[in-house]
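Many introductory courses stop at the sequence. We go one step further.
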Amino acid sequence: MTDGLTRETVIKVGEEVAHRKAPCNECPWRVDAPVGRFSMRRFEEMRQTSEQPSVGDHGAMIKAAAGQQEMFGCHKGDPGTGDDLACAGWLAVAAHENISVRLDVALGRLPASALSPGLNWPELYDSYDAMVEAQSNGSAGET
């Protein structure tokens, strides 16, 4: 195709986005979780999951508009299979900035309720920057 999109950019309406329903006990978004378990380099690599692509980054804009902006994944994955899941803490705090997440909600692939903390959830950091700052206080190595 001449627009730079491939066949893989087809959006499947109704196919639910796999996501955790509540933060796991080690979720870096939890204020009460141990810090320093993950490297700062990894958090910086994942920052783009929580931001809108820059207007000048046409490739990222096309990818996001096609529903392919990466999501912040749960490090544990699905408890039964280990398959990738979107992180519940990230969804509740920062995912509203992710264009693909907004598209998934609009298409019914992700419930809007996933973008808010559930009942009896632990306290979460209020932004990506706050979470990374807290994690940097117990910074893990560069792995």
